[in-house]
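Figure 2 data, in text form.
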Amino acid sequence: MRVPLSWLREYVALPADATPEQVLADLVKVGFEEEDVHTFDLSGPIVVGEVLEFTPEPQSNGKTIRWCQVRTGDDEVRGIVCGASNFFVGDKVVVTLPGAVLPGPFPIAARKTYGHVSDGMIASARELGLGEEHSGILRLSTLGIDAPVGTDAIALLGLDDAAVEVNVTPDRGYAMSIRGIAREYSNSTGAAFHDPAERFRTDAPAAPGSVGVTIDDTAPVRGRVGASGFVARVVRGIDGTRPTPAWMVARLTLAGIRSISLPVDITNYVMLELGQPLHGYDLARLSGDIVVRRALPGEKLTTLDERERALHPEDLLITDASGPIGLAGVMGGATTEMGADTVDVLIEAATFDPVSIARTARRHKLPSEASRRFERGVDPLVAGVAAARAVELLVELAGGTAEEGATVVGSYAEPAPILLPVAYATSLIGVVYDDAEVEHALTAIGARASRDVTGWLVVPPSWRPDLTDKASLVEEVARISGYDRIPSVLPVAPPGRGLTRSQRFRRAIAQDLAAAGATEVLAYPFVTPKQNQTFGSADGSKQPVVALANALDATVAELRRSLLPGLIDIARRNLSRGLTDLALYELGVVFLPEADAAYGVDSVPPTAALPADDVLAALNASIPPQPWHVAALFLGDTVPASKGQPRVPAGIADALGAAQQVARSVGVELTVAAGTRASLHPGRTAVLTVNGTEVGYAGELLPALADELDLPRVVAVLELDVDALIAAAPAQPNASTISPYPAATQDVSLVVDAAVPAAEVLGALVEGAGELLEDARFVDDYRGQGVPEGSKSLTFALRFRAADRTLTANEATEAKLAGVTRAAERTGASIRE
């Protein structure tokens, strides 16, 4: 929200010497975030001048310039070269004299051009920072100004003003107005505040207006009524061609809104002043009375931006007998737009449901100043005030005549009082607040509070729909009394608390992968349907997914079934920036809904209290399974080339090594076997199991898929179900003692059928060798001369050790042969001769 200081000064006692930086500091005290300071970024001398005469001079480049004589003081006439042609002799214009600086910065000096010395410049509105229109020289008569020659144009046009910009959080929609910011500045500094709405308030019932209004929303959408109030006022006989006053143009410009025409500028001005969005209709273009309703199937509307929009049944519309004439609270329609020929105006000031307006604005990708305010909640009691203020300005500035009476539909239901117990603020915030401080804070925010023995019964003001319980009231007490009073105390954790078993294991996995040289990343959980199908199942078939009802980006509207799409996107981004050697991992949840299962709840329990166990159970049952997974990606070189060291490219061995590291972090043993997966190379894919249960996979991406994704040919990946690993982990860590006796090592080569997995042979060897076997590793897979066709020779390195003695060669051999016997029984293996 941008707040011109001259405007703010009208409603709060701002010190005459207050700087924008001081105003921002004061607003920060009451919870706003400072954003920026805006000025017109120019300096004088800039004065009012009168065009005495000019001579058109055609140039060789086809352009015609004017050599002008311009009076800038009583006895001061300057020769000025000007390329514009939209001014006349006798016009009063803005002249920037040598030494002035215009936005850019663009310094002005006397300079020779087109055969003349131009002693200054005649300025356009754009050059002065008053807009982006390329409409030529600014003629003061078009702004209704007739000032003496030599008058300081900076002050005359309001160009000496400045605006402070603050960030307004979604729960404080009232601060999207000069009225709201002025109130908060008063709360911060104690300066006297004058509510601009008070001068238009009346308790007398309004006489019926000439235009009827009906709110036809009898079937609320998602349990919410779209419109709760509507005020319509009529002004007749306006002159839509009158210029917008310079002071209004300057204020609108500083507030970030461009000047369009006087009637439109007035509606925008009142919106900024009071926070109530308004819309003006050309009354001559209306057909009958106004009806506020939801869109019908197949209806369309051409909005003010000249785009035809297909309407959704949830869209709230303003309609007349001809059909839709506006998207309620978002943007008006082109058919009833006010123009230069508008004579009679209907002013609309309505109260719309924030959720309905927000959904419509997002659905049509049409954010507007009006929708931003309605989304945050608009004071329902200010609609009539805003309409009256707009009527006043249309009468004063556009020469209109206000029609007696107003059409008022709807009513305001005051919220139920909230009980704020005595000393509750002190107990919650940790600062001692006496009764006077509490009452002062509640009064300052506009609430009504009545005291009894238990505490205060507080009725929030109409512009604060966010105040719904005692905790939100306490937040206001703390804010108005000063955040600086709240002590910085580190809370002490209750004894016996700490990380859960799952949290400890997940942290160990992340730390071990990072220690091994991988970089942890965090990807968005949103993916495309194609990514989910490619990586979300082993065979690439379409699986049940969780689709987002209101996706931020329609192209990534599903929640991930795998972590790999996010890792791949991050790898592609880094590759595009020249980082070619990557080892990435992510630890996060995936979303695996069950087929034909219904998820979601009709209502969410209130957040102010801990839900009961059965409510929590129902909430947990309403969401799909979300297991924790870990995934990693390797590409480029694991060891770069250097003198005496060839490069070592990344591959499936890195993925398998990382998978084994994850398993060791948890305390389980992985079994590796050849497998298949739709997205991975069929000959370089491993299925990872623990105790016979599949827990993940590792391998290299299909080369064709890697090429499609603009990745190198070899990209190694892995993904493991962390929850399944933790479930298989022992309750207590298995710590083996270190034997002081030497080891006995032996190798064995076994011939088996080529279809038998090496992991199955290794498992049988380990089981048969018994407790003397300390370690067994697969070393080699040989297929060739000396090995029967259809068979393979698998070599394993075995290490034996006893805890209480030095093993003899015979003992080690006996253990090895026992393992070979078990392998023969299980897999048909035989010792290679």
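Caption note: The mean pLDDT is 90.
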